[in-house]
Amino acid sequence: MSASSAAADIAARPEVSAAAELLLRIEGIHTYYGKSHILDGVSLAIGRGEVVGLLGRNGVGKSTTLKAIAGLVHPSQGEISFEGRSIVRLPPHSVARLGIAYVPEERRIFPFLTVLENLRTGLDRHGVGKARKTELLDKAYANFPLLAERRGQLGGTLSGGEQQMLAIARAMMLEPKIILLDEPTEGLMPRMVSQILEIVQVLRGEGVAVLLVEQNVPLTLDACRRVYFIEKGVVRYEALASELQVDHPAIHQYLGV
Question: What is the pTM (predicted TM-score) of this model?
Answer without folding.
Answer: 0.87
